[in-house]
Each structure stands twice: as C-alpha cells, then as structure tokens.
Amino acid sequence: MRYIRPENAADPNLLVMQHEGSSWKLQLLHGATGEYRERASHFPHVHDVYHIVLYTRGENEVRIDDQRVRCGPGMLVLCPPGVSHDFGPVNRGGIEYDEITFQFTSAGRLLALPFAQVLSFFSQRRIADIPLRVRVSSWGMERIRQLIGRVVTEAGSGSVMSLFRAHVAIAELFALVLEEVGTEQAADPVSLAHRNITIRYAQPLGIVALAEELGISPAYLSRAFKKRYGVSPVQFRQQLRLEAAARLLQTSSLSCKEVAARLGFADVQSFTKAFVRHHGHTPGRFSRITRRWQPVSGR
To answer: What is the largest CA-CA distance in the chain?
Structure first.
C-alpha cells in the first residue's frame, strides 16, 4: 500500500513547530507499507526531508550516513535531512519495510533540524540526541506498523478529515518513537545497549553486532557498560538468561533442553554448566527443590 502526496493537498495545521521566529508546517510527502526492495540504487542520496523507516522482513545491509549497516525486522531508522541514505539492500536478497516521508516548510523554505530537536519541540522535553537506528521492542514494532498503516490509509483516502487523522497518527508515532528511543538519559549508547539486551537477551546477540547498531566500537561498549553497571554486556545477558531459566523451571513444564533452546543456549551441556555456576544446582535439581516448596492452590 502506498500514498503519494497530491500536488494540491492541503495539510492540516496540527503539527506546526516554531523555529527562529518562523512557523514550520509538517507536510506529508509519501508513505508505504510492505515496501519490498531487491536491490539498492547505484548511489545513496541526500535531501531535505525526514524519513521514518521500520524494517519488517528480511535481513541485509543498507547504506545510511555513508556506512553499510545491518538492518532486519524491528530496526527503526530515523533519517533527518542531510543524512545520505539508501534503504534498499546492498547484498543479494530482498528486504521489506514500512515508511513515511515528510518535510517542514515555511514560505517555500525547508527545515533541516535533527530528529532530536524536532521531537524536543513537540514533546517539550529536552532530548540530547536520537540515534539514526534503534532496535525497537516487539510491541513497539507492531504498534509502529499500525500507526504507519493508519497514516498511509487515511492520507490515501483524499478527504480533509482523513488527512487530519493521518496527522494525528503521525503525532502518535512521534510519541511512540520517544518511548522506544527514550529521552536524554536513555538515548546514550550505553543505556540503549542495556535496554536492548534486556529486551533481546534470548536472541543471538553478539557484542560486535550490538556495538555496530549503536554506532560505537565493541571495546568502548564493553568498557563503558562495565563501568556503569558493574558487569560486561556478555555477563549481563548471561545473568538475564539464567534468571529467566530459573523462572521457567519453577513455573513451566518445559524440559531442560527446551528451556536451553528457548533462551538461546547452544546446547544442554553449556546451559547446565552456566546454570550450576550461577545458581549452585543443576537445572533438574533446582526445579525439584523449588517446586517442592511452592504452595498448592486450593489448600
């Protein structure tokens, strides 16, 4: 599904920001859901518009800010004016995304501010920085897809009220982006790493890939993370997995093998060894001990 702005479209006066004594009005240019690309164009491009892009299917490298970066389902790209980009895949294999593109205009001029400054104005909260890419939660991914879908559907119907509702959905999308990316404290790479690990601890998550997502080196991430939280990113992820394993062993009927697989351990042997080191018992013994002391409902 695609929406392309008609030349005579009149956007509502809903999302208007003040900057340097002028009023800048948001104009929705186009949007798409389920946009499938099999290859990138020959050269990344730069222009004075804003893109919000959510990758939904496929895994590949794309070009953003003169770098080849890996994107896949759940990767949100916030591309402001002046940043070179090509959202199509660099390597063989397709990739799919939802997106909206908009600009801010005032008397024929185009605004070119960072996303953080735009969202600071609309939220009235000081936001130091917003990364170009962030991995959103599964709930956030689904909600962003719904909002982009609303924007495209409403804007495509052509009526004044439908375009107004599309802008309401964009305002909701701005709020959701702030929830997912965070304010000044959450927007620094170390806090984002902590948040991403907390959300994705059961998924394959290497320190190199995580650092690349955040635009920093693996060495810096490991050093800064341990300084702030007292453990390395790898140790923090392992703690989360082993605590989740204990909960599953206490409350579910899953076998040790099933728990290990669900939490991303390579095999039962490595899971058992790590579990004993952390909890002092094998998974089987831990399950028997803890279940023995659980209250029986109805007594």
So the answer is: 75
